[in-house]
Amino acid sequence: TISSAYKYGAAWNGSMWLAGGDTAPTQIIYSAQGLPEQFPAFNTFDVGVRDGGHITALFPYYDVLLVFRERAIDAVFTNGNGDGYTCTTVNQTIGTTASGTIKLIPGVGVMFLNIDGFFLITGGMRGGATITVEQVSARFEKEMARLSKNALPRATATYSDREKEYWCHFPVDGQTENTHGVGFNTVTNEWAFRSSDIEGTVYDWRFTQLA
Prior knowledge:
Layout: E1 8-12, E2 15-19, E3 27-30, E4 44-46, E5 55-61, E6 64-69, E7 73-78, E8 85-91, E9 103-105, E10 109-114, E11 117-122, E12 132-135, H1 141-144, E13 156-160, E14 165-170, E15 180-185, E16 190-194
Antiparallel strand pairs: 1-2, 2-3, 3-4, 5-6, 6-7, 7-8, 9-10, 10-11, 11-12, 13-14, 14-15, 15-16
């Protein structure tokens, strides 16, 4: 019997992966391949043996499963023999609580928001490659300093393939609703602000979910 308290889930490499939640904040379990309802007893990882806090998201990224935590990012990948998995830390200092902002930008990487701004994950684990995590919002640090850090789990984002843009809305200035936003155009590599108080005019926009 599998606990219903797991908070995050993802389908990756033919298995169902479950993680986090109040009763198992650092535990990951995974099903047998092709059998999403069967979870063998030893198909589990516990990332709590390393610093980084609780799990905040599971995110498939090509040949790895990214495990986001409050202050770190781990990755699960198949071992060299292809008959098991390895879980390792790819960044020990950068994580996120804004689970709804983690989005894949095709041909670019995985972008997400955390308390310090926007970050981009690129690379992989095959052929000697490494996963890198770099900040991409240094040009507007003043805006990022306004983030309502305790309300970041409410932030939301999506990627528009038609517009080739990553859109994100988030709370600022101690507010708990997503009144501010930015868009990143992957063609021009430019950012655009979407503010609720542009030129002194206050718009009653409260985005709860972008899709």
